[in-house]
Prior knowledge:
Distance between the termini: 53 Å
CATH class: Alpha Beta
Radius of gyration: 17 Å
Structural class: alpha+beta
CATH topology: tt1808, chain A
Number of helices: 3
Strand order of the largest sheet: 3-4-5-6-7-8
CATH architecture: Alpha-Beta Complex
Largest sheet: 6 strands, mixed
Number of domains: 1
Amino acid sequence: MARAAHTPHLWSRSEYERMAEAGIFEPGVRMELIDGEILETAPQGTRHFTAIRLIEDALRAIFGDGWDIRTQGPLAIDDRSEPEPDVALVRGAPRDFRDAHPDSASLVVEVADTSLGFDRLRKKRLYARTGIQEYWIVDLGAGQLEIYRRPEGDDYAEKRILSSGDQISPLAAPDSRLAVSNLLP
């Protein structure tokens, strides 16, 4: 089988982690490994960061002991991907992940302003394919929450869009109610 003249090298998660440990990447530059590609993420604006903090606060009010609410922490979800979602809800405590990043999450939340297309396509496919049961996109431009549930292949079987006046119950806490307005800056 002939190879193309120019074939990109797709990195493994272990190669990516070794490069990070060796200091290959410029300090302060945010990177993620998605499907073997090392991608630099855009700098955060104030609304983006405010939304991350609001989401973190809202989830902490619902989820107590036994849950780690990780902000922009790596998820080692497959051999070629180590995304750093804006917020991930993971079973366990911070020290449980001292020696290895979690390999899944009960809920992943991305805050989208300039990244909306990427979050709706590549990130959604990645999270669905790796079995993340619930994925939310906080769309800052539209002021709404996109909810994806029930992964099937590389997509989700259920999609809902909620506005700031609506409420949501996370799958991991079905008896809790969270106002969408509490997630928006």
